Amino acid sequence: MPESPITARGEDFATWYQDVVLQGDMAEPAEIVKGCMVIKPNGYAVWELLQRDLDDRFKATGHQNAYFPLLIPQSFLRKEAEHVEGFSPELAVVTIAGGKELEEPYVIRPTSETIIGYFFARWIQSWRDLPVLINQWANVLRWELRTRMFLRTSEFLWQEGHTAHASHEEAVEEVLRILDIYAAVAEEVMAMPVVKGVKTRAEKFAGALKSYSIEAMMQNGLALQAGTSHDLGQNFGKAFDVRYQTREGQLDYVWQTSWGVSTRLIGGLIMTHSDDKGLVLPPRLAPTKAVLVPIYRKDQERAQVLEAAHRIAHETGARVDDREGQSPGAKFFHWERRGVPVVLELGPRDLAAGKIVVKRRDTGVKEPVTQSDLAARLPRVMEEMQAGLYQAARERLKQNTALANSLEEVVGILREATAEKGGGKFVMAHLKDDPACDARMKEFKASVRCIPLVDEYDGPGKCIVTGETVDRRALIAKAY
Amino acid sequence: MPESPITARGEDFATWYQDVVLQGDMAEPAEIVKGCMVIKPNGYAVWELLQRDLDDRFKATGHQNAYFPLLIPQSFLRKEAEHVEGFSPELAVVTIAGGKELEEPYVIRPTSETIIGYFFARWIQSWRDLPVLINQWANVLRWELRTRMFLRTSEFLWQEGHTAHASHEEAVEEVLRILDIYAAVAEEVMAMPVVKGVKTRAEKFAGALKSYSIEAMMQNGLALQAGTSHDLGQNFGKAFDVRYQTREGQLDYVWQTSWGVSTRLIGGLIMTHSDDKGLVLPPRLAPTKAVLVPIYRKDQERAQVLEAAHRIAHETGARVDDREGQSPGAKFFHWERRGVPVVLELGPRDLAAGKIVVKRRDTGVKEPVTQSDLAARLPRVMEEMQAGLYQAARERLKQNTALANSLEEVVGILREATAEKGGGKFVMAHLKDDPACDARMKEFKASVRCIPLVDEYDGPGKCIVTGETVDRRALIAKAY
Question: Does B264 fall in a domain?
């Protein structure tokens, strides 16, 4: 057997991840454009499936897509004090256009709150104009020093929702509605369990009152922030003078939200399900769901097997890999690395018995199925695999979540996890929402991921740093 | 009656166009970002329908979507001599990123031949790797001095196809296959007749061997280049060293194509069908196909009409405009300007008669339909309107196309058209494919739009400038 082109997870998780991305033909680094990548067809097709699912849910909840300019006048970012501080170090700046030095440079959008705020001010006059529920599918750019395909790249693709409401209550409802959508897509579509929570003040979005996130656990126990939903309060409304006449005839600033998920989700998907053989895709996000590999030795077998293969493919929607000059073994290997959920094996003996072998990518289990039953069986295998992947990830999350009641315990748990497999754990501990407490976690290369919305533990307790009583445990972890 | 917010076409076509775009809530200028626009929800929804249709056709012909970086190292553009000359004046340049001056600036892609050429060189080694059939949905930026919403904006959205082939013949087949797809979408989906042709040498894409285009006629007789498909020959293959081993074991450069349509199509759509009352959308591109406006005076009528309205909407997929505080007249006006193909009127008298009135946006014709027949009638009305719009545009194209056999005749026809309505005509004349001949047309503010692929006229004839014999007539017109 040839050496695997994929490093084992246990050996080096970071290299494993990169190998899976490359061998799965998902993406490749674009070294000539610092920190950027090319999303290859197999990766882009996964993104399209995710997009379609998210987009349908946004539209079903009343949102409309629109498109705003890529370039933002540099002065716009300065209008919201926290916002400019948060994003300034990451900006790419256009100083020359049409052969001339620009009087005011533009920045490439790192996110679009500012430019959309400007247009909201033009569009919104009265309570009758509210709510405004806009989403944008776009590329954004944040100059990053340390990048990793999908997880952190200078340019990435995302959707950014931007809404304006007549009350804070309504805005908060929107923020949580979207957080629920994100969690549902992560769990139901990506088979990736997440913890929904609120960010600490130190970790919130630059310019928000409050930020909410979904946090997922990767196979090495590290956390991945997979989506965020922000309650912007009236901060951007004030910065861009987005005022409206209330029902009562007063002038007030609108209450805004913004929220986004990005191609980063694909990184999370890969690190949740893939294995040492390569990419594993949950059926709902697999561009190709089943590939049939015909097996034959002699020419007379070939004709019979291929004929049956194409008939079965026609009945079931599977794709036949009838490439010449490639052994069945090479084909299995090819589709395995590309994360196809099910490979169907059909040889002369199967043919004689009226059977076909269904092999699941995640478990490797082979199941002989009567050919005439396959069209009915295949969708069920997909459902079982989708559920199985979710269960396995859910179980891993549970196994790798620990309670801690002191700073020493937190540090001990994290150190042990790092020592064992270079990974992490989710540690639940009582911690005050105070930047000083966040800073203590940073000393150990961990951070407060969120304070979960649902308390699954023991309610109030004493902060492990200050000793003050806090409502519930926070989720502390090393993160991407 | 209040004054129309829309300037009449006959009065000022350019202002009419802008009024239709604004009143149809399709887009608005973003003055703060030079030459850019915001695509508003009504406009973006049309783009999404167009995208979906095009994307399905690209995939059905074996193309896959991928995504390449927005930023391109400035040196890349210089690798193909014609290309850099063509695009240099329009570039936006990033010179600062992450707080530092860049050693080599990046340009924001004006088109992606160069960066994709770089990756093709990495991906393609052997004839077995060919063809490579890639498409990208993306934003691009070309700094423009004179802009017009949708038709010419500094940033625009488009798709760009990029393919590599093992022979010139195969590449040309691809170029023409795509040109056919563009023409089919224009005619079948947009109801916009087009002339398929090859560009003159003076008008071809910077870096192509040959460019093909579809040209549409706007209501004022001006031409709009609505899509282009380029035979790049081996120019970019040589510039980026994209070589492959042939079946015979030789090394050769690949043959490439590129092709694109953009949000400009929406401008063409608007200028083909809309009228002095505002936007007209062909049913296949209408985000909302039918709106039911309930009409009532008294409260007891209200309940009955609304109940029937919602029942009918449920049966037919129409949307009910049940906004309070708006008169039926205001509602008719609202949907008219937004280009909804059919408005359904339902009042107490219709209700008593078991009828509903179907009003078509394009003809204004009102047709009373028995309520129980509506679900069956409505799709047919849509088909009739789609066909009617196409026929009307086709007829206009025919009426406004003239033959000319001398330069004086060409100039006379164009002058007359300009004098009459500030517009243009399509003039078919024999003209040599020589930049000097193109230049003569420019003297009269016209250009050679294309040399049509199908000769609908009289075959060879003498060039109106040089007197040399050429194969067929070229299409000369004023253009956007």
Answer: yes
